[in-house]
Each structure stands twice: as C-alpha cells, then as structure tokens.
Design a protein that fits this description.
- There is one protein chain.
- This protein is mostly beta strands.
- Helix content is about 15%, strand content about 45%.
- Strand 5 and strand 6 form a beta hairpin.
- The radius of gyration is 15 Å and the shape is elongated.
- It has 2 domains: about 35 residues, no CATH class; about 80 residues, Roll (SH3 type barrels), CATH 2.30.30.
- InterPro entries: YopX-like_C (IPR023385), YopX_protein (IPR019096).
- This is YopX protein.
C-alpha cells in the first residue's frame, strides 16, 4: 500500500491552512493545490501522516489527538528520524502507528482536537512542562 505524500501550511495570502504538494524555491516555500500556488509560512509546514482519525479527519504533524469519549490525555504528533511520534505531558509516548494499534485492540478511536498553530493552548497539556 502506498502512502500519500502531501503537506499543509499556512498561506501568507489567506492566513489559513492550504493542502497539497510542497515546493521549495530559493528559500521560499509554496504549496501547490488545485492548480494554484500558495506562498506559505515555512515554520507552519506539516506532513500528512497517512492516517485519519475516527471522524475521517487527516492527521498531520503538529496535530493534537485524544481518544474519543475516553481519557484526558492529549498527544502531540511530531516527526523525528523517519517516524511519526506522539508526546504527552509525561514525555515521548511512542509511534503514531503503535497508538492506533492499541486503540484498535481496545475498540477505541482517536480524534484530532486541534493543532499547534490554531489551538496552541492544547499543546500546553500535550507537551511536557518545559520549566
């Protein structure tokens, strides 16, 4: 099975996420989407993980996940050394794939409840205390 490679980033023009192919041109970054080229904020570029949540929402780097209807732990999605990983307030949790394996084995589902850019307050709960 092939994984879809696509990205999202915040457009300078629309100030919203745009989704599509990532292009770098002389230290500037663009997302190509539906025949349009969007100049995007470099720091907001996130890759699609290839997974969707329990409501059919695509999961990207910098998203915050929670189990549907259970638990209070939020998990921050990030990419490191070729893996999509999860981190919560206690530190690195493990891979996104392992999280979904556990959810499936207990008949649970995960949902995207926000992301680093639009709901940064959620990241306070999903990331370890930095003090």
């Amino acid at each position: 099975m092939k994984r879809v490679i696509k990205f999202r980033a915040i457009s300078y023009r629309t100030c919203d996420f745009v989704f599509g192919s990532l292009v770098e041109d002389k230290e500037e970054f663009f997302i190509l989407s539906d025949g349009e080229k969007f100049h995007v904020v470099k720091e907001s570029i996130d890759q699609f993980t290839g997974m969707i949540d329990g409501y059919g929402v695509e999961i990207y780097e910098s998203d915050v996940l929670r189990r549907i209807g259970k638990g209070t732990n939020e998990y921050f999605v990030y990419f490191d050394n070729g893996l999509f990983l999860l981190q919560n307030q206690f530190g690195r949790w493990g891979t996104l794939e392992k999280y979904f394996e556990i959810c499936i084995s207990f008949d649970l589902k995960a949902e995207v409840i926000g992301n680093f850019y639009e709901t940064p307050e959620l990241c306070e709960h999903a990331l370890p205390n930095q003090s």
